[in-house]
Fold this sequence. Notes:
Largest sheet: 7 strands, mixed
Oligomer: single chain
Number of helices: 17
Strand content: 15-25%
Shape: globular
Bound molecules: pyridoxal-5'-phosphate
Low-confidence stretches: 1-6
Helix content: 25-40%
Strand order of the largest sheet: 4-10-9-8-7-5-6
Amino acid sequence: MNAQLHPLASNTELDAFWMPYTANRQFKSNPRLLARAEGMYYWTVDGREVMDGCAGLWCVNAGHGRREITEAVTKQLSTMDFAPSFQMGHLIAFELANRLAAIAPPGLDRVFFTNSGSESVDTALKMAIAYHRAKGQGQKTRLIGREKGYHGVGFGGMSVGGIVNNRKIFGSSMLPGVDHMQHTLDIGHNAYSRGLPQWGAHLANELERLIGLHDASTIAAVIVEPIAGSAGVILPPAGYLKRLREICDKNDILLIFDEVITGFGRVGKPFASLAFDVTPDLMTSAKGLTNGAMPMGAVFAHRKIYDAVMQAPEGSIELFHGYTYSAHPAACAAALATLDIYTKEGLLTRAASMSTEWENAVHSLRGLPHVIDIRNYGLIGAVELEPRAGKPGARAFEIFLKCFERGVMVRQTGDTIAMSPPLIIDAKQITRLVETLGAVIRETA
Length: 445
Ligand SMILES: Cc1ncc(COP(=O)(O)O)c(C=O)c1O
């Protein structure tokens, strides 16, 4: 297969950039180089159009090249490029926090800014521990994650995460005092569920088993993705998240939803928490917050958490935590412009109106060779393929490469092909995305 896209690549030096989550040597011997983006499309360095079936990395929810965001960032940089948020403030940071609080799940109206999903996760974990300590329960420090969970790459997020390749070489460096519930992917019971699977709410009871093992008095928080993306789109069985909420309430354990990919309209509501009608105590976000145009994340904390931590003596710093670039002015400007676009174009709820069309399109791939499951929710879709004997991920990777050659970018994770297009996608584009994937699956052994 020839995925060599541009002669420049062969004489451009590619060695210095140690690429993240990439097979560096394989990529550099056959690079896929993007040069431009607009709306639903990328263009490669040699000018080929590639439809974006992943919103970049689940972040470009309003489509690429939004002038309003560029203009807002340009204006902000020329007015004030940087301002510290340690013991100083600048107005658009407060404005942005207020705007976010207005669309947040009920009660989660205190907003802490970070620069990424990983930082949001580590911030939320620290807030959970700080909250219990502020309430005189300093022994409540244990964190519970879930198998197959992805919470970024910080030591906290990696420790509560449950993807084996992210963990195995760092095994002895994990945070102590972390345990994991089992994941909710069960193809035997739930293959080809449309939307939420009906089987599996009882899997939340696993949390009770861990409480029995460690005792609630030692557990600070449970963190889950309402819909897990990185491990191949894993949906919560109907009733599962509500059950988790009940068990947390009963045991004074905080519930953290990691909404880094589900936030900002991906599931047809501003946040998955609103779509599933389960309110966490802390919620992490990033990605769609700025439409991917500037690095930024935000942690939404329930007011009870903020108020408890604010009990520190007057004049002292209440939470010893923050980043130089927390609430960076240019990122705030990008986020405000992004929220304006989302509001004006109804993008925070558009996925709900497209979801039946999307579901039907994605499920039309059922019955194709090697397809063993299809999962969908909002504008998220996943096709699970049977792995090749002894070569996990190889079939899906080949499909990803072939789709790219045919002008469609999908995401491969293990033996799953995941799709999460910009929320502006139209019916014709859905057809092209899914038909291209289908054609490639058909001809891949
Ligand atoms: C659920 C979830 N949490 C955290 C992260 C980490 O975000 P970042 O790559 O911005 O650090 C991701 C990234 O994909 C994610 O999907």
